[in-house]
Write a structure and sequence with these properties.
- This protein is α+β, with helices and mostly antiparallel strands.
- It has one domain: Rossmann fold (3-Layer(aba) Sandwich).
- 21% of the residues lie in helices and 41% in strands.
- The chain is built from 2 helices and 10 strands.
- The chain has a 5-stranded mixed beta barrel with strand order 1-2-8-5-4.
- Helix 1 packs across helix 2.
- It is globular and about 45 Å long.
- It starts with 9 loop residues before the first strand and ends with a helix.
């Protein structure tokens, strides 16, 4: 008899979809994860790139067919925390996304990261990673890195 697996434990992170790719955003509380998600959705809208919220603040990660999939915590699905306003409903949303990039918001972001720091192993899957210092105006950098990653994937 097979035992049913329970839901995956949630991690403290946010996730957004750009195009068809999930981007996991990690950082300390108050580092700007929700702001970056909101800005990416807005920038996607004005630049013609599909962008949608997967989950904010708590995200479940599941290994499926050799890929790492992120999904919103059920209690927070479709909601984004906006400082000063609390939880707000956001559109568009996606129930899950295959992760293709990890963004770590850290005050110790390196200007020129060493090659060893350009990937991270999560749930048995190696993913490209970028470090960014918390602050405004990060969405353009993430969008640029995502586009470069897409080009590299097409030429491989």
């Amino acid at each position: 008899m097979r035992r049913a697996r329970g839901p995956s434990p949630a991690i403290h992170a946010s996730c957004v979809v750009l195009g068809e790719d999930g981007i996991l955003i990690r950082g300390a509380s108050g580092s700007g994860k929700s702001t970056l998600v909101r800005d990416l959705i807005g920038l996607g809208s004005i630049s013609g790139v599909f962008a949608a919220l997967v989950g904010d603040d708590r995200v479940a990660l599941t290994q499926r067919h050799g890929r790492l999939v992120a999904a919103a915590h059920p209690a927070l699905a479709g909601l984004l925390e906006i400082r000063g306003l609390g939880l707000q409903a956001v559109e568009p949303t996606m129930p899950s996304a295959v992760l293709r990039l990890v963004v770590d918001l850290t005050p110790h972001a390196l200007r020129m990261p060493e090659e060893a720091g350009e990937t991270v192993l999560l749930g048995g899957t190696r993913l490209p990673r970028i470090f960014l210092p918390p602050g405004p105006g990060l969405a353009g950098t993430v969008l640029w890195r995502w586009r470069r990653l897409r080009v590299m994937m097409m030429t491989d």
